[in-house]
Amino acid sequence: MTPARGDHDARRIEVSEAVWRVLAERGFGGLTLRAVAAEMSATTGLLTHYFPNKRALLAYALDVLERRTADRPRPAAESVLAGGTPGDGAVAGLAMLRAVLLDALPLTPENAASNRIWVGSWDVALADPELAAEHAERYRRSRERIAGHVADAQRLGELSLEKPAEEVAAAVQGFVLGLVVQALFAPGEFPAARQAELLDGYLAAL
After folding, report:
1. CA separation (Å) from 71 to 67, 119, 154?
2. Tally of structural domains, the chain
3. Which of 67, 125, 156, 206 could bridge 131 with an S-S bond, Cβ 3.0-4.6 Å?
4. Is the pTM of this model over 0.70?
C-alpha cells in the first residue's frame, strides 16, 4: 500500500530534522546514511527511498542548509525593518545593507554554528562539479540580494555611484566571507564587537 501523502510529508520533515542535527553535531564529514538513520532510530534501508547514494544525501543536505539559513532569525535586519514602513527610506539603503551583513556574520553561537556548517560544505561542493555549480548559484543569488541593497543605498545618495551595484556587491560578499572565516578560526581575535567594527569600517570606505 502506498503511504498517504501526509505520512510522506511528515517523514520528509523528520528526515530534514535528522540531517540538520547530524550536520550540526558532526559537519559534512560525518554526514552518512548510517548517521542519519541512527538519528532517526531507523534503518538505512528506509533512507534509500529518499537517497539512493551518498551524493543524493549531500545534495539534500545543502538544500536543508540553505533553507535553515533563510529561515533563521535575523535580529539586525528585523530591527531595521521595524523602524519604518516601505517607501519611507527607513527600511532601505545603507542601514538595511549593514543589517543584512551583520546577520550573516558569526556574531552569536547560533550563527557561528551555521557558518561552520557552511564553510564545511565548501569542500564537499568543490569535489563534485554539479554540487559546485549549485553552490555557485546560491552565492550568485546572495550577491543579487546584496546588490539590491547597494542599489538602494546608491539611489538614496548613501553610497557612491562610481561602481555598478553588482560589482560592489561582489566585493562586499568577498569581504564578509573572509571575515566569517577569520572569526571562525580565531574567535578570540574576532569577537562580535570587532566583527561589527570591521564591517562598519569597510562600509564607510565605500
Report:
1. 6, 18, 28
2. 2
3. 125
4. yes
Grid look-up 545543502 returns: 62
- Looking at 43, 71, 99, which one is the last position of a domain? 71
| Number of CB atoms found within 10 A of residue 48's CB | 13
Q: Do both 98 and 142 map to the same domain?
A: yes
List the grid coordinates of 20: 540538520
The full DSSP string for 103-151 is: HHS--SHHHHHHHHHHHHHHHHHHTSHHHHHHHHHHHHHHHHHHHHHHH
| pLDDT tens for each residue of 146-198 | 999 999 999 999 999 999 999 999 999 999 999 999 999 999 999 999 999 99
99 pLDDT tier (thresholds 50, 70, 90): very high
